[in-house]
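Subject: sequence -> C-alpha cells, single chain

Hey, anyone have a minute? Need the predicted structure for the following. Not urgent.
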Amino acid sequence: MTKIVPVVCPGCNTPMHTKDKDTVFLCDRCGTMQARDGVVAIVEYEAGEFRRQMDGEKVYLPFWKLGVNFNVRHSRVEGGSVSRFVGFLKGDSPSGSIDMMLPAFETDPVRYKEIAKKLTLDPPNYARANMDRGIKRMPCTITIDMTDDMADFLFITIEAEKPGVLQSLDYDLKVVSRKLVYLPYYKKGESLEPGY
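Reply:
Had a minute. Here:
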C-alpha cells in the first residue's frame, strides 16, 4: 500500500503541492527550497536574470553548480598532453578547484554531456536576480545524492576526450559545495536559447 506523506515547508510549515515530477519543492510563501529523498534537505539556489529579449516561452532550466576539488596523482596519455583540467587552471599544479555546471533537467545522455562540458569549461556569464514566480521552472530530475557520481562522470569524460589516448588516470575528486542555479532560457518548440 502506498503511503502518502504531506509535504510542508521546513521554513514556515506551509503545505506544498506540485503537479510536476520535481525532486525539489519551492515554498511560495517564504522561498525556502527543499529536496525530499528519504530525508528533508534545504537546497541553496539562485536564479539568473533575463537580459536578452527573444521569441519563445520564458523558462528556467535547473543546473547543479558544484564546487569541486581535484587532484590528479598520475595520468598516462599516449601521444597527448597534460590534463585538460590542469590546463584549464593555467598552472603546473596537478590539483585545483573548479565549478562544474551539470544539467539537472531531463535530457538525453549525449546532449547532457555536451551541455555539462561546455558550461563547465566556459562558465555562463549571468546576473543574479530574484526568481520570477510567473515563469515556469523546468523540473529538477537529478537528485542531490546523484551529484557526486555526475561530477565524477564529467571529470572522466573531459579527461578522456583530451588529445591522445588516455591509458591510466589516478585522481581524487571531492564535491565541496552544491547549489541549484536556474538559468533563464527561451523555449520555442524543442529549441532552447539562453536568455542571460
